[in-house]
Amino acid sequence: MKKLIPLLISSVLLILLGIAVGPVRISLSGILASFSLENIKIAFSSPNMLEENAYIILQIRLPRIILAYLVGVSLASAGTASQALFKNPLADPYIIGISGGAAVGASLAALYFPQYMSISALFGAVLAVFTVYKIAKVNGHIPVDTLLLAGIALGFFTSALTSYLLYVRKEGIHNAIFWLMGTFNGSEWDDVKLVLFSSTLGVIFLFFTWKELNLLLLGEESISMGLDINLYRKLIIGVISLLTSFAVATSGIIGFVGLISPHAMRIVFGPNHKRLLPASALFGGSLMVFADILARMLLRPSEIPVGIITALFGAPFFIYLLMKKKRGELLG
Amino acid sequence: MSSLVRLEVRVSFSYNQKEVLKNVSFSAEEGKLLAIVGPNGAGKSTLLKCLVGILKPKGYAKLNGINLLNLKPKERAKYISYVPQSSYPEFAFTVEEFVELGSYATGGTVEDALKTVGMWERKHELVTKLSGGEYQLVLVARALAQGSNVMLLDEPTSHLDINHALRIMNLLKALKKEKVVVAVMHDLNLALNYADNLLILDKGEVRWIGKPSKLTPEVLEEVYEIKAKITEVDSLKIVTAIE
Ligand SMILES: Nc1ncnc2c1ncn2[C@@H]1O[C@H](COP(=O)(O)OP(=O)(O)OP(=O)(O)O)[C@@H](O)[C@H]1O
Ligand SMILES: [Mg+2]
Question: Which end of chain A is more exposed for a tag (fewer CB within 10 A), N or C?
Answer without folding.
Answer: N
